[in-house]
Amino acid sequence: MTYVMLIGSDVALLEGLAQSLAGLGHQPAVALTLADARDLAAHHPPLVLVVDRGLASSAGAELLSVPVAPGGARLLYRGAATPPAPLLPALQRAVLADLTLPLERHRLAALVQSIGDRAKATGRATRNTPPETRV
Predict the structure, then answer these.
(1) Per the confidence metrics, is the pTM higher than 0.85?
(2) Which of 52, 62, 98, 127 is deepest in the core (most CB within 10 A)?
(3) Distance of alpha carbon 18 from alpha carbon 30, whole angstroms
(4) Do residues 97 and 65 make contact, with C-beta atoms less than 8 angstroms apart?
């Protein structure tokens, strides 16, 4: 199960994506602002951070202050009718993919699955150990 945080202002799109990801066995969370996302991620950093490109463009390097779990990735999305907003070079280098949603929702699901599998293969995934076996 991969913990995915979705950040943006289009609540309907984010809820639809969250339901799709939950149906695939992932654990989604939705935040409307970067401040909310930073607060949520401080306690439990997501493995995948999916952020509205317009929000990332206006926030700039502030997006990099939202923690991601080791082995995790940042993804950007925009609507099909929305032109791509400019990004800082440092932010461009920190982003794994730039998606057009909901058109590329299957690509999003494949990326989330791939990132989760990569984290498991490298030993960076969170382990779900039952409480009775913990020391």
Answers:
(1) yes
(2) 52
(3) 7
(4) no
CA distances from 30 to 15, 25, 53 (A): 8, 16, 15
Sheet holding 3-7, edge to edge: 27-31, 3-7, 48-52, 73-78, 95-100
CATH 3.40.50.2300 assigned to domain 3-133? The reply is yes
Q: Which tens digits make up the pLDDT trace of 43-87?
A: 999 999 999 999 999 988 889 999 999 999 999 999 888 888 889
Is it the case that residue 93 has pLDDT exceeding 80? yes
> Which pLDDT score, from 0 to 100, does residue 103 have?
92
Token readout for 64 is 């990099």
Contact 66, 47 (CB under 8 A): no
Alpha helices in 2-123 (DSSP H): 11-23, 34-43, 53-59, 89-94, 105-121
Query: Which amino acid is residue 26, in one-letter code?
Result: H
